[in-house]
Design brief:
The protein is of the alpha/beta class. It contains eight helices and six strands.
């Protein structure tokens, strides 16, 4: 299969962009970048196209962004692909969104394997259509031996539900004697979350001009640096990701303390 599909090549940006990439690689790179991919529908509407056209275009940006993140040395890229609230959208749009993982992974999985990318997912699997779940699980299985960039899809994910479920599990473990409530601290509570094996995001990017979290990683983003842009997700380019990382590198992260 790998021989039949042209594998991706390293991005070949223009010289100024290439120089910027080399410069930012000399400084601290955010290990975990999370992105709220917003604006697909508005992108399509501006072009008098159906909303699904925007989602299809956005899928291409996922591929390009993953490639560049991998090149930059980012260790985890979490993409907010579908929220627990998105089921309220029109059925035709939801049905299409549920087909996108199958389409994306069916096309690009060989590239992910070749580039040593590991696919993971956070979210509620039991509510997903079987064809969506099978595509995700195949990608997770086929890339489990990779130890490069983790491409983490937040699919049918909602942070409030995640936190409530974690509280229920803590109470259950306290009641059964597995743990004592006096042992509970932030680190232990984090181990009950879907992201228990991942470090909290260093940088959150949200496209389309919206300035809100939309029920995304509310616990994990406590000390994350935020970067918002008016750019709609289908128009998000290599330059925008580089700009976000450059902005991150200029900030002083205090984590509630004082520096300097």
């Amino acid at each position: 299969m790998l021989n039949r599909i042209k594998l991706w090549k390293k991005p070949n940006p223009s010289s100024p962009l290439r120089d910027r990439i080399e410069q930012i690689k000399k400084a601290a790179i955010p290990e975990h970048v999370a992105i709220i991919m917003d604006g697909n529908g508005r992108w399509a509407k501006k072009r008098a196209l159906p909303r699904i056209a925007g989602h299809h275009e956005g899928m291409k940006v996922v591929r390009n962004t993953t490639k560049l993140a991998n090149q930059l040395g980012i260790k985890v890229l979490t993409l907010y692909a579908f929220s627990t609230e998105n089921w309220k959208r029109p059925k035709m749009e939801v049905d299409y969104l549920m087909k996108l993982p199958e389409e994306f992974l069916g096309t690009f999985l060989p590239e992910l394997v070749e580039e040593n990318v590991q696919v993971k997912m956070i979210g509620y699997k039991d509510q997903l259509p079987l064809h969506t779940l099978h595509a995700i699980e195949k990608a997770i299985e086929d890339t489990k031996g990779n130890d490069g960039l983790i491409l983490n899809f937040a699919l049918n994910y909602g942070s409030r539900a995640e936190i409530i479920d974690a509280v229920k599990h803590v109470l259950k473990d306290c009641k059964s004697g597995i743990m004592n409530e006096s042992e509970l601290d932030e680190s232990l509570f984090s181990s009950y979350l879907m992201t228990s094996k991942l470090a909290d995001p260093d940088l959150l990017i949200r496209t389309s001009g919206e300035i809100r979290l939309s029920n995304f990683m509310l616990w994990q983003l406590a000390y994350t640096e935020f970067w918002f842009t008016e750019v709609l997700w289908p128009d998000f380019s290599d330059e925008h990701l580089i700009e976000a990382v450059e902005a991150f590198q200029k900030r002083q992260r205090r984590f509630g303390g004082v520096k300097g």
